[in-house]
Each structure stands twice: as C-alpha cells, then as structure tokens.
Amino acid sequence: MLGVIVNTIAVIVGSLLGLIFHKAVPERIVKAVMVGIGLCTVYIGISGMLKGENTLILIISLVIGAIIGTLLDIDGAINRVGDSLTRRLGKKGKTSSLTEGFVTASLLFCIGAMTIVGSLNSGLTGDHEMIFTKSLLDLISAIMLSASLGIGVLFSAAFVFVFQGAIVMLATTLQPFLISHAIAELTCVGSVIILALGLNILGITRIKVANYLPAIIVAPILAQFI
C-alpha cells in the first residue's frame, strides 16, 4: 500500500498548494489554466485511444458500461457525495463548484492504465515505481485543478486511496484477466472516457462521464473472448 499512500499524499499536498495559489492569482489566469488542463486531458485521451487493438471491444464495452452505469446512476452517486461534503462544510451556493472539483479530480486521477497497472505492480511485486511516477503527475495536476475548481479536488484524495487501494488488495485476483491485450483495450476504453472528461472541462459537453466507468471492467473481460 506504500504506493497508494504516497499517491494520496501527493494529491492532498497538490490540492493545498493549489488552494494557496488560487488566492494569489487573478481569475482570468485561473480560467486560462483550466482551459489548458482541459486541452491536456483531451490530448491524454486521444493518445491513449490509439493503443486499442479491437474497435469492437471498445464499442461493446462503452455500450454495456453506459447501460450499467446509468442504471446504477454512478454519476449521481458521486455527485451526491460532493453535495454532501458541501453541506457538511456549510458552503452554501458553492455546491456546483465543490462537486465539480471532486468529480473531475476523482475521475482524472483514477482512470487510466497507470492507475491500474501501477496498482497491480504494487500489489503483486511491491514495485511502486509507476505509482510514484503517477504521484508526481497527480501532484502537478492537483495544484492546477484545485486552483481552478477549489477545495473539492482535495476530497478526491479519499477516492484515490479507496480506488487504488482496492486494486492493490485484489491484485492477485485481477492479474489473470489483465494480459497485455486486455490492458491495451482497457487503456483505449479508459482514454475515451478521459477524452469525454476533457471535453467537459472545456465546457463543450456535459457528459455524465462516471456512468461509463463500468466499461473499464467490461473491456478486459471481453478481451479474453474477442
């Protein structure tokens, strides 16, 4: 769990630095930075999509994932967590901002091959190198995100700890399903979701990104048969 703990601390430290940074920087600079983050997120999504080897798996995974996610209302559940945090903090009128920061950061930090593969390596072999690299990237991202979206990003650290910690604990069980081909398809599907997140950050779309998260589980399963 060392890698997960380091990653969680990185998100917390980055978020705190970003909140300090936000107070010292004009609003127009913060907005410009947010656009930059959105563009980088779109780039990450597009570059990861190209690693897919089977378009059929991508299509089926997203369709099944969307159905499952919508029926479970995953997006609504995550947003309700953000709204609950807002009420507990007594930040009336800032529900949307805190929730957006929490949801955006949680998805950005937890979707992608580095999260899955890095957590598996950490759990199976004790090799934390990839998670440490991801931690540095998340530290920088957390600074920029919290400067733009506020304190909600800080609370995403809890989501990072639970999500990555679960993968580490279940590493032995998950390993047989994540052959190289399966990881490629998982990366592709996850990157499409990241692309959607980037479009949301830029204000182009209002996609309920979290509802597509089950597709990440569906993809490596389908890769065993297709």
**Per DSSP, what share of the residues sits in E-state strands of 2 or more residues?**
under 5%
Please trace the helix and strand order, writing H or E for each element: HHHHHHHHHHH
Poorly predicted tracts of residues: none
Q: What does the overall shape look like? A: globular
Give the helix tally: 11
Q: Report the radius of gyration as a whole number of Å.
A: 17 Å
State the end-to-end distance: 33 Å
How does the helix and strand content classify structurally? Answer: mainly alpha
Sketch the major β-sheet.
none
Q: How helical, in percent, are the residues?
A: over 70%
Give a count of the beta strands, DSSP E runs of length 2 or more: 0
Number of domains: 1
User: For this entry, what is the oligomeric state of its chains?
Assistant: single chain
Can you give the mean pLDDT?
86
Fold and architecture overview:
The structure is a single chain. The protein has helices at residues 2-24, 27-49, 55-72, 74-89, 95-110, 113-125, 129-149, 152-169, 171-174, 180-201, 214-222. Helix content is 81%, strand content 0%. The chain has one domain. The chain starts with a helix and ends with a helix. The model has no long low-confidence stretch (mean pLDDT 86). It is mainly alpha-helical.
Concise synopsis of the structure shown:
This protein is an all-alpha fold and 226 residues long. It is 81% helix and 0% strand. It has one domain.
Descriptive tags:
11 helices, mainly alpha
Fold topology:
Layout: H1 2-24, H2 27-49, H3 55-72, H4 74-89, H5 95-110, H6 113-125, H7 129-149, H8 152-169, H9 171-174, H10 180-201, H11 214-222
